[in-house]
Here is the input.
Amino acid sequence: MLENKNKKLIQYYVLKCFQCGVCTGSCPVSSITPFNPRRIAYKIVRGIGGIDEIWYCLICHICEARCPSLIEFTKVVTKLREESIRARRDILNTYREMLKQFLDSGLVIKPISNEVEVYREKLKQDLDKEGFHRVLREIFMKTGFQGVGIDED
Here is the structure.
């Protein structure tokens, strides 16, 4: 799967990993995509192939900044990407999926729940003048904010 020079470099970094999960918890895309640095490290150590989720990585270096083992995970991802290109894997699948999602909804990454849609529907009901004033009064009452009147006209 990996070229010898890249294999040694990748294993050098990944074998220092003690699976604390800080990288995944810090990663801005791990909660909304299949990308999971901890799982990738595990797959590498176990020799499990098929790590296509590397293309979701933003190379933002947050995982590196927070890693207690000082693993340079973006180097691992970069080397895995190089290997994937050399092996002529279909690297465009991830990008096709993102492009389709963008063309369908205007979002690059699919929401993980429909919570936002439900909230938007509720807001539509509250956006008429009467509903807006009702919501404002509720907010003022709950926060103890007094002394500001809401015009009814």
User: Anything to note?
Assistant: Residues 129-143 form the longest helix (15 residues). Residues 101 and 110 are 7 Å apart (CA to CA).
